[in-house]
């Protein structure tokens, strides 16, 4: 677990045998490295038992081995951070296993609760049209019962994004919805959003995690098997995968996947033990949902099809009732 090494970072190495660890091959060596910043604390008693117990707990929740180890390492790091200022007796004190109740930033254990996982099954991505502003589109989705709002404002500056985010966030809180900022870690942190979503050409997930630590859900966009493996390696919490078909709501569109593309990618994930939530995106309408969900994806993301409806809130409600 790297806890006794010197330096500004700690690195753990996960080794798997050739049969179960095909996805772990790095330059011919079957291992993967997991690094994090050193936590300045003497309260390190019990880190080994904590790490192994957390790995077991995440495995029991259905995560693949690599993701379970990554999640457990994040849990341990957060427990070390939360216990840094605790004074118990003399010498090396224990880590703070109960950090979720003391108001400090939450870790992956909290981020990936069943409630949040269920919310991620239907995501709405804001879009500005001749009829609706970004704010309006978010309000309509919330009115329809959506529990996951992603604020995407590609042509806006940081100030406008932040102003809009501060209007939408209280409504998400009031309705128990997850609020994600697209492609802007700084705004997500300043506004107290739940997370950030990063496109294929945006900041790498690994860099976003270094900046935000465990304060944000971090999602990434994928179009290929290589994208998915990279995002899993960098520690993404979920993957937005697409496009399903042609869409006018996004510029620089990647190659269309279709149903067969999703089947191949979810099959690859199963073969390689990658258990991240994968959300289909891109040109999806209500009539597509049933067949898409049969491909093995975790959920779907909608935008244009909702806003083009005569009654967007009612259309979102119809989608929600299908899950």
List keywords for this structure.
323 residues, alpha/beta, UDP-N-acetylmuramoyl-L-alanine:D-glutamate ligase, TIM Barrel, 2 domains, 3-stranded antiparallel beta sheet, 11 strands, 40% helix
In words, what does this structure look like?
- The chain has 323 residues and is α/β, with parallel strands linked by helices.
- It folds into 2 domains: 94 residues, Ribokinase (UDP-N-acetylmuramoyl-L-alanine:D-glutamate ligase, 3-Layer(aba) Sandwich), CATH 3.40.1190.20; 210 residues, Alpha-Beta Barrel (TIM Barrel), CATH 3.20.20.70.
- The protein has 13 helices and 11 strands.
- The protein is globular, with a radius of gyration of 20 Å.
Q: Beta-strand level of the residues, as a percent range?
A: 15-25%
Tally of individual helices: 13
Please state the structural category. alpha/beta
Tally of discrete structural domains: 2
Top-tier CATH class of the largest domain: Alpha Beta
Set out the fold topology.
Elements: E1 9-15, E2 25-26, E3 29-37, H1 47-60, H2 65-82, H3 108-111, H4 114-119, E4 122-125, H5 134-143, E5 148-151, H6 158-175, E6 178-182, H7 185-191, E7 195-198, H8 205-212, E8 217-222, H9 225-234, E9 238-241, H10 258-272, E10 278-280, H11 289-293, E11 299-302, H12 304-307, H13 312-321
Helix pairs in contact: 1-2, 5-6, 5-13, 6-7
């Amino acid at each position: 677990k790297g806890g006794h090494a010197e330096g500004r970072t700690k690195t753990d190495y996960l080794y798997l045998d050739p049969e179960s660890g095909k996805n772990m091959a790095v330059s011919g060596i079957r291992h993967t490295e997991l690094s994090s910043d050193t936590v300045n604390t003497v309260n390190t008693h019990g880190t080994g038992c904590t790490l192994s117990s957390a790995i077991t707990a995440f495995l029991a929740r259905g995560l693949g081995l690599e993701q379970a180890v990554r999640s457990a390492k994040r849990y341990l790091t957060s427990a070390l951070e939360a216990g840094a200022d605790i004074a118990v007796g003399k010498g090396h004190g224990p880590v703070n296993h109960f950090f979720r109740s003391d108001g400090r930033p939450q870790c992956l254990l909290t981020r990936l609760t069943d409630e949040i996982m269920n919310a991620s099954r239907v995501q709405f991505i804001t879009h500005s049209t001749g009829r609706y502003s970004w704010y309006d589109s978010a309000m309509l989705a919330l009115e329809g019962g959506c529990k996951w709002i992603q604020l995407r404002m590609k042509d806006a500056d940081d100030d406008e994004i932040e102003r809009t985010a501060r209007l939408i966030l209280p409504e998400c809180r009031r309705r128990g919805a997850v609020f994600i900022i697209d492609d802007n870690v700084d705004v997500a942190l300043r506004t107290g959003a739940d997370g950030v979503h990063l496109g294929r050409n945006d900041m790498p997930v690994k860099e976003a995690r270094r900046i935000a630590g465990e304060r944000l859900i971090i999602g990434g966009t994928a179009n290929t098997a290589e994208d998915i493996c990279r995002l899993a390696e960098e520690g993404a919490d979920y993957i937005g995968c697409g496009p399903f078909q042609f869409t006018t709501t996004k510029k620089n569109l990647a190659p269309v996947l279709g149903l067969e593309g999703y089947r191949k990618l979810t099959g690859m994930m199963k073969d390689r033990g990658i258990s991240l939530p994968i959300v289909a995106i891109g040109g999806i309408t209500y009539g597509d949902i049933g067949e898409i969900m049969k491909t093995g994806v975790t959920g779907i993301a909608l935008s244009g099809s909702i806003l083009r409806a005569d009654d967007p809130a009612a259309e979102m409600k119809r989608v929600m009732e299908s899950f």
